[in-house]
Amino acid sequence: MSKILFVTSEAHPLIKTGGLADVSGSLPAALKSLNHAVRLILPAYPQAKEKAGPLKCIATIRLPGSQEEIKILEGRLPGSRVFVWLVDYPPAFAREGNPYLGPDGHDWPDNPERFALFCRIVNEIAMGRVGLNWRPDIVHCSDWQTGLVPALLSLEAERPATVFTIHNLAYQGMFPAEVFFRLGLPPQLWHFEGLEFHNHLSFIKGGLAYADKLTTVSPTYAREIQSAEFGYGLDGLLRHRAADLHGILNGIDLDEWNPATDPHIEWHYNAKRFSAKQHNKGVLQAEFGLPESGDLLLGSVGRLVEQKGVDLILDIIDQLAELPVQLALLGSGEAHFEAALQDAAARHADKFSVKLGYSERLAHRVEAGADAFLMPSRFEPCGLNQLYSLRYGTPPIVHAVGGLADTVVDATAEAIKQKTATGFCFYYASGDALLRTIGHALALYAQTPKWRSVARTGMAQVFDWRSSARKYLALYKETVKRP
Questions:
Q1: Which of 83, 6, 18, 92 is nearest to 52 (CA)?
Q2: Tell me: domain 274-459, CATH 3.40.50.20, correct?
Q3: What is the pTM for the complete model shown?
Q4: Which of 292, 294, 339, 347 is nearest to 317 (CA)?
């Protein structure tokens, strides 16, 4: 049995801004179900404290420069047997809303101080210096907010092994050089093979340069980030560490995302009772204010940012309106994308509807009610919505990058014949390529038996967390045996 300290800045259902939270809420529970001792640690945001209760204080720590004692609170990850440890330091974490952004939508100016403090606490816990009588064999960190942990542990004798997961290399935790010295970090970490990156402090380099093993969330993305196109300036370092870099696909919660039992949807269905899915389509059209129609209903859920290919949708929205297609879109993000989508919805009210914000309930209803799911990401480390869509018999339309390329099989004539097709892929990030692929989906939609065959093949795919967890456990075992 391994002892695993899972370090994250967010975890569903405690607090969530994106896919990192889904992974951090699911993978520890899957590891626990395989009989390993897991502790999930994250900052004590108000939302997390509310949902992980009842809480008890199990340790107190005082760091140089901290205004008050830092408490370690213990609770449980809802719906699991995983212990949650919350780093409770109100000056840094007692803030409602987004864990990284202020009410103005901009980063909290003290983010480097907040997450450096979090990483220092994790380092102390990992080294058994806070009186918990529990030391991990593996410290598994994710994304830039935890990147200093492997760096700090690299300076310790008899330390635990470290694994660092890249969920999205575009977010790196970059700050001016003076921030490194203001934080009082060990000076031996400041060099071009360490935390320094073009005379800036890079939190993510702490993980990339110092962790024993690196992972990312799909095999294709692991290859892509070693290229200049997707590497964001870190491709050289990642090529240097290629032998330690592994792509492990994310999973999904098969109980939470199950059209046969989903409490969020009106009509339950499965591959054998697939016709019941059509009733959810009518419900979704009504909910989005779209006329009930036999048109191909496209659903989309996600952040409205360039990464997600929102601009590609906007490039073709007027042409799309001329086709027998409707689009129901749920999301929030950059103000100019929100405004442009609302304007398009006003121009084509019978074809296109957008709801700004996020609702877990509505996300499930989009997956169940849409005929196909639109996911034209410019890059996608893994993606989860395409996995939900496959589960719900809603063939995804995707740009074949990252995890999308690893999980969606294009509906070519040969793949349809062999019953391996699960969705529709395009291979160049342009509006024209997206429009052609939607046209392909539209043509197949007119052939009901073939369409249902593709949808049912998708429903038969299994991307569960226990499979992913076993791959992580094999990597942990290899990592612990390091010299």
A1: 83
A2: no
A3: 0.91
A4: 347
